[in-house]
Amino acid sequence: MRRALSLMTIALLVSACGGGSEGTSPISAPTSAAGADTSAAGEPSTAAGPATAATDETASSTDATAAEAAATAEGGTCTIRISGDLEEEVEYPQHPIAISTDHWLTEEQLRESAEFLEVSYEEITARDDPVLTWLMVTCGPDPLGDSSTDQEGPAVMVMASDGTKGSQMPMGPGTYAVAGNLLDSDREPGTVGVGFDYSDEEFFHALAGSGELVITTWDDEAIEGTVTFDITEAFTDEPRRATVQMDFSFTCAAATAHSGCG
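User: That's the sequence. What structure does it adopt?
Assistant: Structure tokens below.
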């Protein structure tokens, strides 16, 4: 399932780093301005007094802005609870690509993503289709994390089904049926598919029609909700069964590839 993130991740990173004023850090400008005082000969000014005080004040303001941005970017968390033949509960912090949604991307980012994917932005939007996806939520170890660290643990991915229109999955509260696994090609538009990873040796798949995604809050700043579904073990004569519940509360500010936050 984690490999399914690759193309989406690349497109998001391309759109996020595509240049323009939106990619410029709001913290860097005051720092540069603070060091801009030079003499007529082009040498740095050695004058003390108000200039020094102004620099200190700017630096202090910059530090406060940086601290505030860092606090905002900490993001939310998600929790996976498994009950039945498997019993486990684990909480993860929001990682940078824990959520992807066209609703949180700017038009410039969407156009850059469409260009990268070699599709027509105008044709896609005219059909009310997403350039990337109306919604993809993942809960688990950071797929972009340091490979030397422990990346074990269950993971859940929820994604809008192919063919879903923007009018069927608008930004806001809503309830969507779990129509099956991510790889099931016959999922109805307006539903979601789910993926569940447990370990490299144990494989499970979701049962179609066994649950739903309930989004309680979704605006241009944050999204919160719960997805529940049943799973059964594959490739074994005595499959184990369990129910999976994943609660998530993610912020747009911590979804670093998205610039359309409120």
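The chain has five helices and eleven strands.
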